[in-house]
């Protein structure tokens, strides 16, 4: 779809990867580190956030934008798992040691310089995602690196240990609802330098960091890892893309972003050619309410009737600019309108690069608007409908965004969408929002402890993938999947029990488990110990491999049964070879006709019949071998 | 030199001296493993001795062990120079004129972002910068009376505040707001209640439980609420602070029956033995009771004499005579007991109590249960203590008992008058009857059920 020369564009990407750690309790309080799912909250607490002045006596731009949204925040909590700390009503308790040690192990895996004395900082957020208005964070490692397959080293700038933010539930009428269960779960953030130069490199780097994280004691569930990408091209600017949930999205997101930046630069050049300048941009909108009071456009008329106003803005020389596609299915008009939506809360804008007939404006009305706005053939006008307060914000957003077209790409934080596109999320946070935390004292990473952890570091996952694949004669992708499912250590212990056929273990842990889960069953009912017992029974030939799936299914339905009980319930007591021979003999004797007709090709149907009787009680391969012998004996007999 | 290496000691001071580095220098540190660049930060004097603390370019602070350092290079200097923007507090002739008195504490302070130190911000322009809404409520005149942590309050400060309030009344201010640390706010509110007679305008104490340097601070809302109450007709000394964990409404508490009841939550202040006087929400006041003093033109009289030789003693099992004898020997004039239950102390200390009373020391009994009255006719201990001459302090909170006894002893030396004054309801410190919900009232619930 895109065919960019990344080198010529000067593409630079950096990654920020966030990963929740799997600890019993939270980072700065002793509440359980456990999400409550869809459980109804017990209480609500309402708060407002205010911007605080930064070091230089100014407000951070992103903070102001957030404040201007005028949002009320409701925190939803549970009496049994949320404490006054999460509500910012009690100072922090000591730092979770378990979390600190996991983060230390990760920093060492990234070959980082370990900060011996850590100082907790506050990273301010006004969106309400943290009740205190800031996330507590500390740097644990600096200057590490991760190596890509081709040997290229991507430098790791920092690894920090911090608190997870609250979980956003919904936005209703300018009120953001956050659930506090996720708040405070320990999180590591790994930030790379902008050493990444192609979209594929970025995907690989994210994957490798992810694999490395998942080798340690981190939460291994959907949503426990999140990637943010920083993308810039030489002529553009640094854009932060947040909320990238799947590795496979990364190349598309980057390509879309490159396209957006390239096109915004084209717009800038085009405006230069058209000799349009920033001075042509209006300072104020024009009130069209009176003019359009009796418009044929139903939505506008209803709006005005309910007391809303209609404002117009004319942009000289902008014809076609709003309609220009920046990335797939996203025009410059989309860019302006989504920013208006987010900041002012309005539904969007109308602009004259669109088909105005769709809004049921008559040609005469359009003329009237053009006259009032002094809008000429080569111009583009924009209409917005809303309350005076909303319109004031909206007009500000539009004017400022249009002014930026003369500069190029405005720096901002964008949100990744499923489509591979992105939309405006907030202004890029400046540096002036990281302050020392006055509520806590320095936290130490003792040198001796660091040395101890260094000694017991796991191998690099990509080496493990290669080694295991070779050693156990399985696909590399299977081993990778085991790591991403958090099943590698289970695989290790099962291999110890049942070294004969690694592929059976892999099939069980990946495919069978997935299939059963898909039936809507709770696969978590099967514990690691259950798996160990299953493979022990298999090794002792108490069951055949065909029985595994049935045992697992029964176990998910009746978690209270032991594996032994499950085997008994399923009547899966293993068959001796002697008993098998008798069963096969019976069937072969009954089937002279088909054996006579088809010869050895009768194996298929007869195998099916035998398996009906012995499935799960003995290995299918043994059955097949024995059946083959008996059929050929029978054939010899017949001759 | 000390100051330029603030908080550094041991090996760290040696190495800084060796490379002639001071705090605020921008340096490059080479360690065995890496190179780090940042500003040398002052250190807390209680921190570990062998570390250099720097602020990295990304604003994180980190401590580097001196034994890891191979080289330090100075590459510049950046002095912390923190200044709020100067914005003039706008004057609006239609709005009431309020006096804001600063005493220190969290409400009007902010963080020095470089050092992490808390610095006061109290000029009208500074307040306007951080809480512009105040300009929609009032014209503000600010004065820093003193800058102390509230645990360091003394009766002299209460006296000074009372005088400032008197001046404010005389200068025609419509109300006074006092920014105060929350720890001892209720001591001050009680003291001012006793010291200001026939108060004609509202005097509102407020503070914050989360300092104003954090986005979630309650300071702005408390100031807005306090300013609103200060323009109302409640001419009493009151405390106005948030009434629930939400940033929703503030409660108005009478200054003599209010107490900080939690070490950290926002809605820490509660009226004890009664429901609050009222509430303030969205700049509107709703009163729950009408037995308050109304704004008037009467002359406010101040009576600030105070006897500081008063002790507040918490009763506990195992108390001994010598503890009380210490105060007698040191010339104390009054003792307030925070007694157990209905107002008791161990019979083991009767001897000392007897001696104290014989020597003319006034002993006032309050209860450490905080809620409820002392009831010294119920058990023999109570009756015996009364017989010894201990004065039952009805529903007085121990701290209010302390402040009241200090104030009463400042007025007279006559034992009979002392007792009479102590038992007179001077500033709403006594309640006639305790309504059943007073103990466990939940304002949110009462509001929801429209019971207020």
Report on the architecture of this protein.
- The complex is a heterodimer of chains A (639) and B (452).
- With 639 residues, chain A is of the alpha+beta class.
- Chain A folds into four domains: 11-238, no CATH class; 271-410, GAD-like domain (Gyrase A, domain 2), CATH 3.30.1360.30; 459-569, no CATH class; 577-638, Arc Repressor Mutant, subunit A.
- Helices cover 40% and strands 19% of the residues of chain A.
- In chain A, strand 20 and strand 21 (422-427) form a beta hairpin.
- Chain B has 452 residues and is of the alpha/beta class.
- Chain B has three domains: 3-77, SH3 type barrels, CATH 2.30.30; 97-302, L-asparaginase, N-terminal domain (Rossmann fold), CATH 3.40.50.1170; 310-422, 3-Layer(aba) Sandwich (Rossmann fold).
- Chain B has helices at 10-18, 124-130, 155-170, 185-195, 219-230, 321-329, 350-358, 380-388, 398-411, 415-422, 443-448, and strands at 25-31, 35-40, 51-56, 61-65, 69-77, 97-102, 109-111, 118-120, 139-144, 175-179, 196-197, 203-206, 237-242, 250-254, 258-260, 269-271, 278-281, 284-287, 301-302, 310-314, 334-339, 362-367, 391-392.
- In chain B, helix 6 (321-329) packs parallel to helix 7 (350-358).
- Chain B is globular and about 80 Å long.
- The termini of chain B are far apart.
- In chain B, 47% of the residues are buried.
- The mean pLDDT of chain B is 92.
- At the A-B interface, strand 2, strand 4, strand 5, strand 6 and strand 7 of A face strand 3 and strand 4 of B.
- Strand 5 of chain A pairs antiparallel with strand 4 of chain B, so a sheet runs across the interface.
